[in-house]
Design brief:
The complex is a heterodimer of chains A (370) and B (335).
Chain A lengths: L6 E14 L2 E14 L3 E5 L6 H9 L7 E9 L2 E2 L5 H7 L4 E4 L13 H13 L3 H14 L5 H4 L9 H13 L5 E5 L7 H18 L2 E6 L2 H5 L4 E6 L2 E7 H6 L4 H9 L39 H5 L5 E2 L6 E2 L8 H12 L3 H6 L16 H4 L1
Chain B lengths: L14 E14 L2 E14 L3 E5 L6 H8 L7 E6 L2 E2 L5 H7 L3 E4 L13 H12 L4 H14 L4 H4 L9 H13 L5 E5 L7 H18 L2 E5 L3 H7 L2 E6 L2 E7 H6 L4 H9 L40 H5 L4 E3 L6 E4 L10
Parallel strand pairs in B: 3-8, 3-9, 6-7, 7-8
Antiparallel strand pairs in B: 1-2, 1-4, 4-5, 9-10, 10-12, 11-12
Helix pairs in contact in B: 3-4, 3-6, 4-6
């Protein structure tokens, strides 16, 4: 065998559009990235940013008949988008697996945990029933479920949410996949349980040298646990960088705004939050130009006309799609121009007015509504 | 955890709401679910009290029991001189105009078949001015105050609005009766981060403008800290710790509070993560809660006394407004 490509996954101009009565929803609209073996990529975005559809499109889990997928997804040298459903089936579980958000609904409620853990192991690896059971119990033990032998014969409803998510992780890992997708794996769980599940995922990934994509809306979840982060907005990656770099040297105004909008524990109570004006765009009729421009405090005429594509920053592996990146002189000038023009996006960003979901044309002073 | 005891109750402040020994139990197969087991607290006028804890700790049940949705099993809830648990159904119905609730899911808490004008005017049609023009005047004022254009929204239905806008509309509906106390049950949990910040800022502004008193129930500790003056931490139907919020986060006194704070994912890659992989814990059942301190089965500091005696609320020595119910508090307490 030749020296293997360092990138396990190469996604090129991936588009997933859904045909609906009102038009075409461009859920994923031209995403490209590559992911080296053994690394973890965090995909961050708000609802409707396309992060879940992206993960599912890569795995070919878009069963909807109205989905139009184009572009290229190369996994370990093979093109996935041209594979038949049957060929994909032989990859699921063995090569790539997914842990879903809701452990309550991703397990079959009327089938015992043991059978859910062994059916794909027996199918893919062709082992006997007894061997499958032994390996399943071993899997339950490795995800740190107490009394795995007894748990093998229980139903999902007899377990807590955290325990069920551990079972889902065990199922995903049972056939030894090289690539794991985790789609909001801890969003439905309590904070203490979330902490344990994230630790478990990280430990399993290290042990098995898996490549992982973690999809989440929570920048906190990916901050200490990923090698790289891609921030998505309206179906596109707007910024991608090594994790530490993204937090310290962010270039895209949306990344900056997202981080600033989160309440921080270290701030005193009643600290005013930096909210973003407006709300995520309509994906059927997205705004012209940069899709963040109607909400952006720095937007200039060019932003409303011409959509920026990902361009490389000085640092290796860092790219962003913005004409007036944060930290540049052009950005500072754009902000002061917008403040002088009393644009609400800019005024809200500096705390002069309250951000609302409407993007008003004219500026209403903060005091006027109150 | 915790505890009973009354050391944390207010004696000096202008108290709007006093809850005493509140117990809420539900019948269930196999026994009784002890959802809330004897908690007491006071809320001063104009204050925001945050209630935090994991699912099943009884924080939502506490909020609902104040409104008698459902009625508490025992205990008293005093609001402005009336004991809400003793009022007749009719008197309680009238009293509910002073108490309002904002729910987690903004879309399902608005009637999908009514227009926004009707939804927000509904409380006024029962209790407000009879004249529809007067009603609309109040409704449009309130919609303006929450950042919704009243003339655009009036004849629209809830499905035409986003989650954040629907939450603004539910807030307008809660405010239109000019209540004294609003119970917010996870009001921003279903919203995206960017919209969540808008709603939190707006709640703070409305609170100042209308002199509201809030009970803010949420599982997100950073959100609760941001909005609350005082925070109460609950575990399995009991109150572990009550404190002024900055103090609570700076000096957690209860091992459970420390566990909660330590589990929060911090959006900063430079903060080291305790990455030990723990085994799944068996959480105690609210049908058969542990004796003594209810947190003892998960507590690293638990000793014999925790099994036999329920800890009482005690004041933390270094602070004016910080109380903890623990036999082994993490900071020095007044004996």
């Amino acid at each position: 065998m030749a020296v293997s490509d360092p990138d396990l996954l190469v996604v090129d101009n991936l588009k997933t559009h859904f045909q609906v009565p009102a038009g075409i929803v461009k859920a994923v609209d031209g995403v490209s990235f590559s992911l080296p073996r053994g690394k973890t990529l965090g995909v961050v975005g708000e609802s409707g940013s396309g992060k879940t559809v992206l993960a599912r499109s890569i795995m070919r889990l878009n069963v909807a008949s109205n989905a139009l997928v184009s572009g290229s997804v190369r996994y370990d040298g093979q093109e996935l988008l041209t594979k038949t459903p049957r060929e994909m089936q032989s990859l699921w579980g063995v090569e790539m697996a997914m842990v879903f958000q809701d452990p309550m609904t991703s397990l079959n409620p009327v089938v015992k945990v043991g059978r859910q853990l062994t059916e794909h192991v027996r199918h893919h690896l062709g082992v006997s029933k007894d061997e499958a059971k032994q390996s399943a119990i071993q899997m339950l033990r490795s995800v740190r479920i107490p009394e795995p032998e007894a748990r093998f014969d229980t139903y999902p409803h007899e377990m807590s949410g955290g325990m069920r998510q551990r079972v889902c992780i065990a199922i995903a890992l049972a056939c030894g996949p090289k690539m794991l997708f985790a789609d909001e794996p801890t969003t439905a769980l309590d904070v203490t349980v979330q902490h344990q599940i994230l630790n478990l995922l990280a430990a399993q990934q290290r042990e098995r040298y898996m490549t992982m994509i973690m999809v989440t809306h929570d920048l906190g979840v990916v901050a200490g646990r990923t090698d790289e982060i891609a921030v998505m907005y309206a179906g596109r990656i707007v910024e991608k960088a090594p994790t530490a770099h993204l937090f310290s040297q962010m270039k895209h105004p949306y990344t900056e705004a997202l981080l600033r909008a989160i309440p921080k524990l270290e701030r005193p109570k009643h600290t005013r939050l930096d909210a973003i004006v407006g709300r995520p765009p309509d994906l059927i009729n997205p705004p012209k130009g940069c899709k963040f421009s109607p909400r952006c405090p720095y937007a200039q005429a060019r932003c409303h006309e011409e959509e920026p594509t990902l361009m490389a920053a000085e640092a290796a592996g860092h790219s962003y799609a913005c004409w007036y990146p944060v930290g540049s002189e052009a950005n500072e000038k754009a902000l002061s121009d917008n403040l002088a023009a009393r644009l609400p996006q800019a005024l809200a960003a500096v705390g002069e007015i309250e951000a609302t979901e409407e993007v008003p044309g004219a500026v209403v002073a903060a005091g006027e509504n109150n | 955890m915790a505890g009973t005891g009354k050391a944390h109750l207010r004696t000096d402040a202008d108290v709007l709401l006093s809850v005493r020994d509140l117990v809420v139990e539900f019948p269930a197969r196999g026994g009784v679910v002890h959802a809330v087991s004897g908690i007491s607290f006071d809320i001063a006028r104009g204050e925001t009290l945050g209630l935090v804890g994991e699912s099943g700790c009884g924080k939502s049940t506490t909020g609902k029991a104040i409104l008698r949705l459902p009625k508490a099993t025992s205990g008293s809830v005093q609001l402005g001189g009336d004991d809400l648990t003793q009022l007749s159904n009719d008197a309680m119905r009238a009293k509910r105009t002073d108490l309002q609730m904002i729910f987690q899911d903004p879309i399902s808490s608005l009637n999908p078949r009514r227009t926004i004008g009707e939804v927000v005017a509904e409380p006024l049609r029962v209790w407000g001015p009879k004249d529809e023009g007067e009603q609309w005047k109040l409704v449009s004022q309130m919609l303006n105050a929450v950042g919704i254009d009243p003339d655009v929204a009036r004849h629209k239905h809830p499905h035409e609005f986003s989650g954040g806008q629907c939450q603004r509309i539910s807030i307008a509906r809660a405010l239109v009766m000019e209540p004294e106390l609003i119970i917010c049950d996870e009001p921003v949990s279903a919203l995206d981060v960017s919209v969540q910040a808008q709603i939190l800022n707006m709640l703070e502004a409305l609170k100042k403008k209308y002199g509201l008193t809030l009970v803010f129930i949420a599982h997100d500790l950073a959100v609760v800290k941001n909005i609350s003056d005082r925070v109460a931490v609950m575990y399995l139907g009991k109150m572990c710790e009550v404190s002024e919020s900055d103090e609570l986060y700076a000096n957690p006194a209860h091992p459970y509070t420390r566990l909660l704070l330590g589990s929060i994912p911090v959006p900063d890659p430079l903060v080291a993560i305790d990455d030990e992989v723990a085994a799944e814990e068996e959480l105690p059942s609210p049908i058969n809660p542990p004796s003594g301190c209810r947190f003892r089965t998960r507590c690293p500091l638990a000793s014999e006394i925790c099994e036999v005696a329920e800890p009482q609320m005690r004041a933390v020595a270094s602070s004016e407004d910080h109380f903890v119910a623990c036999h082994h508090p993490l900071v020095e307490v007044v004996p």
